Amino acid sequence: MDLLSTGEIEIEGQLVDASNLALRVRVGTGDTRAAAVYKPIRGERELWDFPDGHLAGREVATFLIARAGGWPHIPETVLRDGPLGPGSLQRWVGPLEPQEPISLIRLDPVREVPPSYLPVVALELEGDGPVAVSHADDPRLASLAVLDAVLNNADRKGSHLIEDDRRLWAIDHGITLHTDPKLRTVLWGWAGDPIPEDDLGRLHDLVAALDDTLASELAPLLTGDEVEALRHRAHRLLRQGTFPEPPEARTPLPWPLW
To answer: What InterPro entries does the database record attribute to this sequence (predicted)?
Structure first.
């Protein structure tokens, strides 16, 4: 965290597949340098349903929330000034070179979904016939699905998941923490199932942190209504004790799915 917060930032290149300006950088001092992703606020594209200039703050808020609850999926993230002005700076996780999407999320012909995978949605693709999106019945993914419900994550794509030496990381959390219901995810396979005990414990820890110092830590990053909506979602998940069901009145999936 000290390295991210105070180290010198050197831009190496642009991540061209990102929807907003995202730069791979080296951060540090002297010989102590690490790879990171720098997302300057000035490079954020306008969204109709999120306020301008707030995506970087939501990236940082996501890290603070995950850390407070004990979810291990979000790389260290800070908000600071950089070569292109203020923005989020997140420790790089996974390989430095592009890789194939991880196999935890799959697209298969409907009849070929592996038995150990949970189907999410069936689609009709031109030339390919009916196919199904599914994900592994993996406790790491289940825990992340609980965190996404807490965050009200509007964009949980398959490409936002990175597996590194059996550690599952999740990135790109700029469109989270809205006051209105916006959960869009490829991780609906546990809908209606009981939330695992470990994640119920994480929800308890998050609620306790919000009653302690977390709300004040989030105040510079989110509105008061957004913090209260976060608290309400955590309490509701604890009270219900089950994964949320897909909404019927709006799309439950991000697009593209990867």
So the answer is: CHP03843 (IPR022292)
